[in-house]
Automatic annotation (TrEMBL):
One Pfam short name: Sugar_tr
Subcellular location: Membrane
Family in the record: Belongs to the major facilitator superfamily. Sugar transporter (TC 2.A.1.1) family.
PROSITE patterns: MFS, SUGAR_TRANSPORT_1, SUGAR_TRANSPORT_2
Major localization class: membrane
Keywords carried by this UniProt record: Membrane, Sugar transport, Symport, Transmembrane, Transmembrane helix, Transport
Name under which the protein is recorded: Major facilitator superfamily (MFS) profile domain-containing protein
UniProt keyword Kinase present: no
Amino acid sequence: MPAVGIVIGDGNREYPGKLTLYVTMTCIVAAMGGLIFGYDIGISGGVTTMDSFQKEFFPSVYEKQKNDQESSKYCKFDSIPLTLFTSSLYLAALCSCVVASYVTREFGRKLSMLLGGVLFCAGALLNGFATAVWMLIVGRLLLGFGIGFTNQSVPLYLSEMAPYKYRGALNIGFQLSITIGILVASVLNFFFSKIPGGWGWRLSLGGAVVPALIITVGSLILPDTPNSMIERGRFKQAETKLRKIRGVDDVEDEMNDLIAASEASKLVEHPWRNLLQRKYRPHLTMAILIPSFQQLTGINVIMFYAPVLFQTIGFENDAALMSAVVTGLVNVGATVVSIYGVDKWGRRFLFLEGGLQMLISQVAVAAAIGAKFGVDGNPGVLPKWYAIVVVLFICIYVAAFAWSWGPLGWLVPSEIFPLEIRSAAQSVTVSMNMIFTFIIAQVFLMMLCHMKFGLFIFFAFFVAVMSVFIYVFLPETRGVPIEEMNQVWRSHWYWSRFVDGDENGRVEMGKVH
Ligand code: BGC
């Protein structure tokens, strides 16, 4: 794995280059990879609450929901096949990550994106035309394989293409396209659920073909990154491309550093074993904990199951889907706030403010649901104002996530790994994210059934733990060039004991000899 477009060398170098129209357009097309991920996150929750869909594939859930007025509302949707439908995708994505990382390295980012798009198309078609549960599950596995490929290659592609000064904003651009995908999916669910005859879910699921085709066609017209060309020995071609991307002729410094970085990374024979060295302890800790904590905020409970949750607290089908649209809008808006603020206010401020806001809103939601539903889950008739208050607190929670753990959960790991462990550490981050997404998706409905309103306290507990962790252990990384990043560990009260520096106090991280 090569250097991901980072500044290597003495740390004082600034590569010339502009934010050209060419690179902007290229990055917009590539970011569509986030769209397919988001579309998928947003579509499943709405589809699983559509009556016609439930009747056809999960009749027991449908019966339980319609006829059973007696049992607890908390347990209405607790069905293993229904959960498997949502979560199978993440398991598949986890598995394909490993293959995707090989394809991306050996054959370039473009081919990985293309494969991702094609697999996603196939999955969307199988789902749209499904007549049996196995078709749904196989379709979702294909979607998952597709996402494994695009999530591996797209962020890498963006980082390599972007001029280094804009890498932070472009990185969050990927998250922005995830949130747009989620929003579009909820809006479509809202309209498709109204189609007479009840076949709208086919359009919702089959609609994933559109973002899939965009990334498929996009990957065919996108140029490969100079880094990837260098990695495969095409130096002349890489230089020409770099000039075009940067919009300047003087690309010698950057070219030399990219070649040196690529050669250095080829020297590392055992990136995984490397990662276990003592001096990488802070990096490994962050690679494992940040994505795990991101999922333990409980965000995907809202993203996957918002309509189910809103039905549980007494909304009609329509209002439940509409509320999912509202949370989707808040998600997109707050991500924009993060793009604006991340380099102004810093990562720690956003993490801590977001954590506190999430904690308060989760406790409020737990209290509101607990007050009305109690432990038996039979609230009687719920007033409208009540449901509105709950939705409001959920929006406050989503906004907090969307300007903190959402984008930073991807950004911070990607900016702290030194070159020689970047590839391995990044795979750890992506895998941890998928594992925890899978676990939460798989057990949420069961947890709602058993823990009831306490479920929100469960996630609030983790939010408190992760906020303390950030406060104590995460140094600020804003405005620190990647190759200088080890300084932040060196001057940290705890991590300084693991990392070592030279006699000038400078640490040779990501430096190529
Ligand atoms: C997370 C997803 C989540 C999404 C919500 C992403 O950063 O990785 O799991 O669904 O944000 O916007």
